[in-house]
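Researcher: Hi, I'm a grad student and pretty new to this. My advisor asked me to get structures for two proteins we've been looking at. I'm not sure of the right format, so I'll just paste the first sequence and hope you can take it from there.
Model: That works fine. Here's the first sequence with its structure tokens right after it:
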Amino acid sequence: MLNTLIPLADYNLLFAVGAAGICTINMLIAVRIICRAAMVSGRSRTKRLLFAAAVAGNGVWATHFIAMLGCPHSFSTLYRLLPTLLSFIVATGLFLPAWRNEIQTSNRSLSPATALYMTLAVGGMHYIGIFAINIRDVLVNMPAYHIVISILPGFILFYIGTIFLRREKGAKRSLAALWWLLAVCCLHFLGMPQKMQAAD
């Protein structure tokens, strides 16, 4: 697995720290909005869920592309417009059913549905974002196990975060955001290809 990842020595960690900081803030905000959405109904709930989806979607999308700036030769990398926009839409669009499902789920439930939606949102955004790079065969040359290795730990961490959110009370529920941060970072950095051949 290790030879499929970008070497750590070649990566600018300042961008990773910045991306993680943005993701942390957005996930903390999303948790608070979700908790407030659960206390209201009707249009107020819908507005809060939409806002929470926008916050989370923007957060993980920004996290991905800021983290990509830390890769070697990132400032000379070009991105195709449509896949880049699609990656944003997927992230924001799939967080909405995730949050809707979560506030409708019992605090004692062990349902993994919310974590599954979150994994699809972040994983879909990530790999569409990789595809958006103007690089030939960047995903074609990535082995299937590489994708599984990034998706599975991300799902587990998202799931732990949702269980934490359901079981904790008060301000402690915000700690769920830290599990979600780990999930996003895990999925991103384990899902980065090492060798990318420039397009002709």
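Researcher: Oh nice, that was easy. Here's the second one.
Model: And its structure:
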Amino acid sequence: SMAPSTTPVTPTTGPVTVALATDNPASGSFIAPASGVQFAKFTFSGSGTVTSLKLMRKGVSSSSTVNNVYLYDGATRLTDGASIGSDNTVTFNAVGGLFTVAGSKTITVVADTLVADYSLAFALTSYTAGGVANTVNVSGNEMYGASATLATAAMSASTGSGSTDAGLDINVWQSTASVSTRDVILKSLALRQ
């Protein structure tokens, strides 16, 4: 396995540059299966809209180690889950823009892990910002998979009034969480209409 990059490479052209974020996750362990594991943080600087971003899977692992890779801006998920292709890459595209940089913006690579492979990292290999394609090699640190018996949390089928009428105190969504093995902490809940 290749050692993670310690000196981020920044492009010399284009309206937006990128470097490893100062708060990039340190090398560590993840328990599989798990949701929402942070693998890398990249800080984009300059001014422009990023419409394409490509990541490369690195480390001693397989493409089936994860089933979803996401991009986050803070606590806001920017993309749907993407799969790692047979070429070990994950590409995100959005004609209207994945995100806009005005000064600086830190984007986090988050993945749902399925199995506890030996090591896994993600490197940013290219992105398009303001119509300019940039090739880079900025790598997050390797994370090491481990197995454990985890707590589980399952949500029951949701219920609600389904009402579209205006009014007060309308129950639009309700569900019951069932937790087993040990206590869990609910960190976030995202609802989409």
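Researcher: Is there anything I should tell my advisor about the second?
Model: You could mention this: The CA atoms of residues 87 and 143 lie 20 Å apart.
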